[in-house]
Structures are given as structure tokens and as C-alpha cells.
Design a protein that fits this description.
Blueprint lengths: L3 H25 L14 E4 L2 E4 L4 E7 L2 E6 L5 H10 L6 E3 L4 E4 L5 H38 L4 H34 L2
Antiparallel strand pairs: 1-2, 3-4, 4-6, 5-6
Helix pairs in contact: 1-3, 1-4, 3-4
């Protein structure tokens, strides 16, 4: 018979995973500033096989609006440039024969609103994950109660579960609020 502490620890781990996934996804949402994460999902044709851009070049920011892609091999300049264009990110890479520079265009008002919606949707997904963990935790507590856990301990555990859920949902809201502020700042 699993005990209440292990149920709570497992649930907390699931909720924390939902939060960290949200943080990773929000980093990929463009907020007007150049960020190497923007190119993370781009696959480059490397001698016949598709590999992540990070396996063929270093991606850094030169300033708030410019990304610099420095290939490990000079022969990879053109394939990397093509991969960036094919990724359809609205970016226009400039190949100078040594590095690829990408000037990140400022966001339009309409695009900012779209990105805000995307951020909210990601937040909602994280909340669903948190609620699922809560539901699972509550079911485990009910099962433990059936197997002989005293009612007052079960009620106490359910309150802890609800408290944990509320804390994690608040964290999600803060992340979304912060990202929206970042997106809407011109």
C-alpha cells in the first residue's frame, strides 16, 4: 500500500514537470527579441541526413535584433541558410561567406496578439496537465481511504493536493502574464 506522502510527492513532480514544459515552450514563442532558441527546431541537411542546427553551427545573439549563425564547416553555410528559409519563421538570413546573420524584424500589432493567444493556449495546456495530476492524486487518496486510511488523514491529504494545485496554477498564470508583457512591449 502506497502512503500519502508518496502520492503527494509524485503529484508534485508531475505538476512541476507541467510547469517546466510550459517554460520551455514559452521560450520558443518569439517576443520581438533575437533569441537562439528561435532556431532550435530547425533541421539542416547534413550530408544527406537531417540534424538539428545546433549540431552544425553555433547560434548566438549579436544584439537585441540580430542572430549570428557560425557553422562548424564553411561548406554548411548554404544548407543552413536554406534550412532557415524553409522553416518559414519569417526570418531572412544573410550569408556573408563566413557567418549567417539574421535580423529579427519587429513584431506587428496583429502578430503580437497572435503570439499572446499562443502563450495563453500553452498556459491552458499546462493547467490541464496540473488538473490531471490533481485528479490522479485524489483518486489515489480515495483508494487509500478504501484500504483503511483514516478519514481525517484523507481529508488532510485532499486539502494538501488542492493547495498544491492552486500554487501551480498561480505559477502558470504568472508565467503567462510575464510572457504577454514581454510580447506586448514594443
Amino acid at each position: 500500500m502506497t502512503d500519502v506522502k508518496s502520492v503527494l510527492d509524485n503529484m508534485n513532480a508531475q505538476m512541476a514537470k507541467a510547469i517546466s514544459h510550459l517554460e520551455a515552450e514559452l521560450q520558443k514563442v518569439r517576443a520581438g527579441k533575437a533569441n537562439p532558441v528561435m532556431l532550435e527546431n530547425i533541421q539542416v541537411d547534413y550530408y544527406g541526413s537531417k540534424v538539428p542546427i545546433s549540431n552544425t553551427a553555433s547560434v548566438n545573439t549579436q544584439d537585441a535584433r540580430t542572430l549570428v549563425v557560425q557553422p562548424w564547416e564553411k561548406s554548411m553555410l548554404t544548407p543552413i541558410e536554406k534550412a532557415i528559409q524553409m522553416a518559414n519563421l519569417g526570418l531572412n538570413p544573410q550569408n556573408d561567406g563566413v557567418v549567417i546573420r539574421i535580423v529579427v524584424p519587429p513584431l506587428t500589432e496583429e502578430r503580437r496578439k497572435e503570439l499572446t493567444k499562443t502563450s495563453r493556449s500553452l498556459g491552458e495546456d499546462a493547467k490541464v496537465g496540473i488538473r490531471n495530476a490533481r485528479k490522479e492524486g485524489m483518486e489515489h487518496i480515495k483508494k487509500l481511504q478504501k484500504d483503511g486510511l483514516p478519514q481525517d488523514m484523507a481529508k488532510d491529504a485532499e486539502q494538501k493536493i488542492q493547495s498544491m494545485t492552486d500554487n501551480h496554477v498561480t505559477k502558470v498564470d504568472k508565467h503567462i502574464e510575464q510572457k504577454e508583457k514581454e510580447i506586448m512591449t514594443v
